[in-house]
Amino acid sequence: MSTEARxxxxxxxxxxxxxxxxxxxxxxxxxxxxxxDLADSGADADALLDALLAEGLSSLDHVALVAHGDxxxxxxxxxxPTAAVAATSGEEIVxxxxxxxxxxRLVTGVTSIRVTLTGDGAxxxxxxxxxxxxxxxxxxTPSDAVAAVPPEVPEVxxxxxxxxxxxxxTxxxxxxxAxxxxxxxxxxxxxxxxxxxxxxxxxxxxxxxxxxxxxVPDFDRPPIPGQEMAPDVVSQPVASLVFSTGDVVxxxxxxxxxxxxxxxxxxxxxxxxVVTVASPHQEISSTHLEIRPGAGADHGSAIVTDLGSTxxxxxxxxxxDPEDLKAGIAVSLIPGAVLDLGDGVTIQVTNP
Amino acid sequence: MRNVDxxxxxxxxxxxVRKVNEDSFLVAPPVFVVADGMGGHSGGDxxxxxxxxxxxxxxxxxxxxxxxxxVADAFARAQARIIDFGNAHRAMTPGWHAGTTAVVAVLVDxxxxxxxxxxxxxxxxxxxxxxxxxxxxxxxxxxxxELIDSGQITxxxxxMHPERHVITRALGSxxxxxxxxxxxxxxSVERLxxxxxxxxxxxxxxxxxxxxxxxxxxxxxxDRLVRAAVAAGGRDNATAVVVDVVGLVKDAxxxxxxxxxxxxxxxxxxx
Lengths: 352, 271
What we know:
Chain A: This is FHA domain-containing protein. Chain A: Keywords: Phosphoprotein. The structure holds 2 protein chains of 2 kinds. Chain A is mainly beta. Helix content of chain A is 6%, strand content 35%. Chain B is of the alpha+beta class. Chain B has a single domain (4-267), classed as 4-Layer Sandwich (Phosphatase 2c, domain 1). In chain B, strand 2 (23-28) and strand 3 (31-38) form a beta hairpin. In chain B, helix 1 (44-60) runs antiparallel to helix 2 and helix 6 (205-214) runs antiparallel to helix 7 (218-231). The chains are: A mainly beta, B alpha+beta. Chains A and B meet through strand 11, strand 12 and strand 16 of A and helix 2, strand 4, helix 3, strand 10 and strand 11 of B.
């Protein structure tokens, strides 16, 4: 079987080495970088299994591993993933039976393997060694879909952890706009209860009939005007924050600081780091400021934004006069900068 | 989470127009869910029930230190089940879809500090009472919310907009799910409300605030909200879950269990 692989985008991680591919749910993000180190250095399936199991089975609810050997393909699935294996000897669906730790197969003469993690997307993007977010991964060429992959399919962004500096993620291709979904009509409901409306129905009859429309992918995280979108989470912290309270926090994601900070509208994989500081005189606002990895021209440095705090923030950059931050205006921080939030709380910015 | 004392109440009504209640809810402290299904009988009701079942499973083996991850997993499991269910149905009825919204509130342990982790998908809503004021926390995933955010219509116009029931994210969507999460300090939430759009579509925020402010018992507050929505026309299934943080139990005193049981019997087992 050729080891050519394709995938459908999703929220699982695919860690793809030359011979071994490991698939992990999005929640296992913390393991991905370490596994990639191993996979990239040519580790075999056993070495990757060792790493996967180092913290015990209980923290690893779902995983799939595909290793291409010289004459046989080894396949391990645990939890949600299912694999459809086509071999010269026939076809088989591999999934872990309820109660079993995992299902393992050593198959010779494999022609194709399709591992389904979530959904049922068409695997039409080329999967190359590196790390990708996937929902379905296909190895080899399914017999019934030889022509399904046009050769001019552009290589999709594959986040590679090395070498530094990490490449900017290229934008995903625009998803095809989907037609709005249709739903069963309530009129078809076969269980009349005899209830009648007490009011004339002045609204359209789709009332009370929530419908799913077309998702708008980039709607949810409006960037700060005039700034490029920051990456949600970066692999290497861009700075360290040394709080006067003694806390030290790495800026590898958004850091929110305040008296009782609230984090809003984040996705499960980019939960901000929330730092609570005491403010006996209430000089510090509940969510006072945000520090996050910069994007674009600010790539590689930390940027601070005062989130409209009541009493403001003073920034002293080395060699410059202290300045008041303007609410909502992001400022790039250089190592040695000190932020004063009030109530004696300061944050010193240092190299990571 | 044993050291946070939560009181809660829940109420749900099919309304006056619909024949099936497609809303489902879960109260399994510290896990609370409201889901509003779409797709009609044996569609939306099943989809919303699947969400509740997956969060029930979460509640049975809940680890507050891994709260965000477990909530994301429960969403993913519910999504997979609803998609499977839809695929099975579509084999018989092409074009058929089942989906559901979901709003979730759980207590999580964020580096040793107990906080509220809230999540939403769709147009069911999460509100809180803070300093005596009602505040909507969740942001609807709906066409009209996007029009409001881009300044094309006002909130008042949205209430009568023809596309006000079209949501842009839901469980069961073949595009995958993308829940919004919110992390709030425990002390910033005096009272939490999770409700379906059968409540918020029928009564104004002002009336919701009055009820949540004036009715002390969370069970009565949930009942009052749902009854007000039905009285206002009941055009959709209406569901409300109200949660109060009533105290932080620092330490189990020698007779705390006996006190709790005695209080429980006096209050009719709501603890």
